[in-house]
Amino acid sequence: MTLDRVTLDRVTPDHGDDGSSPVGPRLKVDIITIFPDYLAPLEMSLLGKARARGLVDVQVHDLRAWTSDVHRTVDDQPYGGGPGMVMRPEPWWAALTTVTGRARPDQAGSPERPRVIVPTPSGRPFTQSLAAELAAAPWLVFCCGRYEGIDSRVVEAWADDEVSIGDYVLSGGEVATLVMLEAVTRLVPGVVGNAESVVDDSFSHGLLEGPVYTRPVTWEGQDVPAILRSGDHGAIARWRRDEALRRTAHRRPDLLAGLTLSDADRQAIDSPARDAADRTSEPSTGSP
Ligand code: ADE
Fold first, then answer.
1. Where do the domains of the chain lie, and which CATH numbers do they carry?
2. What secondary structure does DSSP assign to 208-228, as a single string?
3. Shortest CA distance to 140 belongs to which of 66, 56, 54?
4. What's the rounded Cα separation, in Å, for the pair 135 and 14?
5. Which of 27, 164, 205, 278 pairs as cysteine with 123 (C-beta 3.0–4.6 A)?
6. Residue 56 is inside which H or E element, if any?
7. Which residue has its alpha carbon closest to ligand 1 atom 2?
8. Which of 124, 127, 168, 170 best tests ligand 1's pocket when mutated (most atoms within 8 Å of CB)?
9. How far apart are CA 209 and CA 165, in angstroms?
10. Pocket perturbation via mutation, ligand 1, pick of 35, 87, 120, 171 by most ligand atoms within 8 A of CB
11. Where does residue 190 rank: exposed (0-12), middle (13-18), buried (19+ CB within 10 A)?
């Protein structure tokens, strides 16, 4: 499947029992790439379902549709020399004018302007708070560069954000776009069935999420902590926070620096890590 322009559904919103999408998608996403097939995972899982329900509208565009030479060339040698190739400005400019519906990036008077994102290792870090910000936008355009990147004049003119998903170099922006979209779309209201699970995610309170358990109560000689089976919701909430604090202090102490901690929080961090003595081997009550 390689089409000049691959459309992964513009879905007519349904009016399901869950009340989803009565007036159109909550989030519109356009992705421009030379490898449309790379974005196939967008059909799957939660995001695939969100698209089928009309909550999120995703379209993938093949950049080569905006080339005019017989070889459909998208790259050229870098000015100043050096290894690798740079993506030519012409196809990107043409693609962005078509996809955004704007003759120029600064065109005034057009009611809706997408937020244009260029994934790049030299961008600002992608974080949960940026994911939340992007989830609140009505329309995102992702420009997936390859080679040494996109000619900077295109990026300067069109990009609202250059974003990195981590301090390592991928071969292109496609996987970074998938990563960002997975984080963003699960924050779009209605995409995740249980809204609370989004609220409890790692990073949502500035902490890593602590350990989680399900049945059976004993597995390979290890028991589920008794407190989680106690039914005491206050004690369970405190235990979860303590575990999250300890885990964050151990694995990501940098995250704690930005938080206001209570005395109880500090005590949790200073207390020794939970060990086998914290667990009991009471018989299972049958409920997780
Ligand atoms: N493209 C290549 N590497 C990347 C990274 N780390 N983040 C975002 N886009 C990229």
1. 27-195 (3.40.1280.10), 206-278 (1.10.1270.20)
2. -------S-SEETTEEPPGGG
3. 56
4. 21
5. 164
6. strand 56-62
7. 170
8. 170
9. 20
10. 120
11. middle
Give, as one character, the DSSP assignment of residue 84. Answer: S
Ligand 1 atom nearest 119 alpha carbon:
9
- pTM higher than 0.70, yes or no? yes
The pLDDT profile of the chain, 288 residues, written as one tens digit per residue, is: 332 333 343 333 343 444 454 579 999 999 999 999 999 999 998 989 999 999 999 999 999 999 999 999 999 999 999 999 999 999 999 999 999 999 999 888 767 899 999 999 999 999 999 999 999 999 999 999 998 999 999 999 999 999 999 999 999 999 999 999 999 999 999 999 887 778 777 787 899 999 999 999 999 999 999 999 999 999 999 999 999 999 999 999 999 998 999 999 999 999 976 644 333 444 444 455
Q: How many CB atoms lie within 10 A of CB 115?
A: 15
Secondary structure class of 263 (helix, strand, coil): helix
The answer to whether 172 and 135 are in contact (CB under 8 A) is no
Strand order in the sheet with 139-143: 56-62, 27-33, 139-143, 115-125, 161-164
The number of CA neighbours under 13 Å toward the Cβ of 189 is 9
